[in-house]
Amino acid sequence: MEDYKKEFIAFMVDSGVLKFGDFTLKSGRKSPFFMNAGAYVTGTQLRRLGEYYAKAIHAHFGDDFDVLFGPAYKGIPLSVATAIAYSSLYGKEIRYCSNRKEVKDHGDVGILLGSKLQDGDRVVMIEDVTTSGKSIAETFPILTQQAKVQVKGLMVSLNRMEKGLGGKVSALEEIQETYGFEAHAIVTMADVIEQLYNRPYRGQIYIDDALKASIDAYYSQYGA
Q: Under a CB-based contact definition with an 8 Å cutoff, are residues 19 and 34 in contact?
């Protein structure tokens, strides 16, 4: 496994973002692991997070895009932090854009905040994690209704490696098939398991035999 992936897994654990236990996801699935990007709360955490996203986006998409679109709400700080990091690391100004949950009817009106979208804009969508693809199904129409944009792809931090809404292939694969753009992740759950299963990190075993059995059972039902 590449060093940056090991570093990012450790970063998620240290930040309290990647947790193990019993969780109910937005999709309704009961999961033994959970990733909450809302736990990135300090300036240092957000700076490092933006850098990891920027490096992954640059590796997959180069400089061939104009806008980072982060769906509300967690996608807002992700897009901001990554736009800042991208400017610092690669010297290119990338605009950020997000949607509001409610349309604003005064002042800065509309459903978008940040940069307005323009015809011809090349957009990379950015999210924390995609479990079933439901969130993309909700936000993609909002994005494409604002202007004639070209969506280059989606970047998430963790690929949970689960079936999408269609129940056959992974959510990221299903997104690619449904919308016709690339979908990538900084790390996968296979990477996480490889790094943490029965391997102590800071004196603690995060994935022991019992938790590994729960994860295996989860994937027997939802795994792609």
A: yes
pLDDT at position 117, please?
A: 92
- C-beta separation of 222 from 194 below 8 A: no
pTM for this model (two decimals): 0.88
Q: Which residues of the chain have pLDDT under 70?
A: 103-109, 131-133
Distance CA 197, CA 206 (A): 7
Residues 114-162 pLDDT 10s: 899 999 999 999 998 876 667 788 888 888 888 999 999 999 999 989 8
Active site (catalytic) residues: 104, 106
Residue 128: C-alpha distances to residues 118, 146, 149, 214, 222 (Å): 25, 23, 22, 23, 19
Asked if 71 contacts 101 with a C-beta cutoff of 8 angstroms, the reply is no
Contact 211, 219 (CB under 8 A): no
Helix (H) or strand (E) holding 129: strand 129-130
In sequence order, the β-bridge partners of residue 188 are: 159
